[in-house]
Design brief:
This protein is mainly α. About 95% of the residues lie in helices and about 0% in strands. It is built from two helices and no strands.
Length: about 140
C-alpha cells in the first residue's frame, strides 16, 4: 500500500507539473491577446482621430462648396472657372465621404476584433480558473 501511495503521489506531482505548464502557456497566450487588444484599441483611437479629421474636412469642403456656389451667382464672368472648381471639390467631397465610410467600416471591424479578443481573454481566464480549481481538487 505504501508503493501505491508513492505512485499515486508521483502521478499527482506529474499531473500538477503538467497543469502548471498549461497554466503558464495559457498565461502567455493571455498576455499576447491582451497586447493585441491594446494594439487594436490604439488603432481604434487613431481611426477615431482620422475619422474626426475627415469629418472636419468634409464640413470645410461643404462650406467651401457653398461659398463657391455663392460666388458663381455673384460673379457671372467667373462662371466657367467656378463650375470647374465645384466639380473638383465635389469629387474631393465624394472621395472623403468614401474614405469616411471605409474608416467607419474599418472601425466596426476593429471593434468586432476587440470584442472577439476580449471574449478570448475571458475564455482563457475561465480556463485558467477551471484549471486552478482542478489543481486544488487534486491537491486535496
Amino acid at each position: 500500500s505504501g508503493i501505491n501511495a508513492d505512485k499515486a503521489f508521483k502521478d499527482l506531482q506529474q499531473e500538477n507539473r503538467q497543469l502548471d505548464n498549461q497554466i503558464h502557456q495559457l498565461n502567455n497566450e493571455k498576455e499576447k491577446l491582451e497586447d493585441k487588444v491594446s494594439n487594436l484599441q490604439e488603432e481604434k483611437q487613431q481611426l477615431d482621430k482620422k475619422f474626426k479629421e475627415v469629418s472636419k474636412q468634409v464640413d470645410n469642403l461643404t462650406t467651401q462648396l457653398r461659398d463657391r456656389d455663392y460666388e458663381n451667382k455673384c460673379l457671372h464672368d467667373d462662371k466657367e472657372r467656378l463650375k470647374e472648381d465645384l466639380g473638383r471639390m465635389e469629387r474631393k467631397a465624394n472621395d472623403l465621404m468614401d474614405r469616411e465610410k471605409q474608416l467607419k467600416d474599418n472601425l466596426d471591424e476593429k471593434e468586432n476584433e476587440v470584442r472577439s479578443l476580449q471574449k478570448d481573454v475571458w475564455d482563457m481566464k475561465n480556463k485558467v480558473s477551471d484549471m486552478e480549481q482542478k489543481e486544488q481538487q487534486y491537491l486535496r
